[in-house]
Structure prediction request, 282 residues.
Amino acid sequence: MQLRDMLKRDFDLDLAISGGFGQSRGDPIIVLDCHGNAASQTIFNVLRGLGRGRQILWTMLADSRIDPQDKFIHQVKILTKFASKEEIITQRENYYFDLTASAAKHLATPIIYSDTASGIRLPYEIRWWHFDNIIDNEKQHPGLGQTIAYGGPGMKVTVYVYGQAGQGIPSDLGSTLAVQMFDDALSDIAKAHPSAKSVGKAARYAGFLVQQFTSDQEMSLLALTAVNGKTVKIRVTYVKDPLLQEIVFESLTELHQILAAPFSADVFGSARAIRREHRHAR
Prediction:
């Protein structure tokens, strides 16, 4: 069975691809999209489908043309994590894609949410979180903004962006208004999930006000911040697991880095550069 047929059968991903399974430069996945942005989106969807099929956590590290003679053969490098019963297995893996149809020399940055007033731009991938869907609440409920869902094995992530630029909570998370909005959000969680118990006290983490919760089967957290007057609220639920705990907070840190530089032309490139700087600093 071809990879395209497998992704359609298992995950209802109808992608414009042919060729091989991308395990070597001689057996690349051929991307048939003729536009660079569409081709990039297809590559991320392929990786998402493969990750879901293997039930692994993954994040993109880099993409590059591997040989000037193979102008449009790209090597995409990802980092994967998988928790077995004995250990956490971390690997770097390479996938190969043929982008001849679009003549793309590099992967574009798939942006799935953009707000010109505040400068917020959210990419397909936020470290270990991968885009699922977006709901525009403004049509039926003006003022409630957009709901952007991300996910990964054992994790569900919802990012809410709402309010008018210049009219939301201030950047000072210690302000009375910011604290009140966070308390209101905590009250909403208590009503909707009465079995959830707070873990410690609310604290600041990576530019967010954050509160963790625990229940019988899962952990969750609420995070809140502001960007140029827009309110950004994040709700994450995940299976109780030390690896997922680490993954969630690593992804939250990257989200803050993305929000802190909203006008970057290359959100992925900027985030990867920041991670490289952090590794060198350690």
User: Anything to note?
Assistant: The CA atoms of residues 22 and 133 lie 26 Å apart. The chain has two domains: 3-98, 111-281. The longest helix spans residues 36-54.
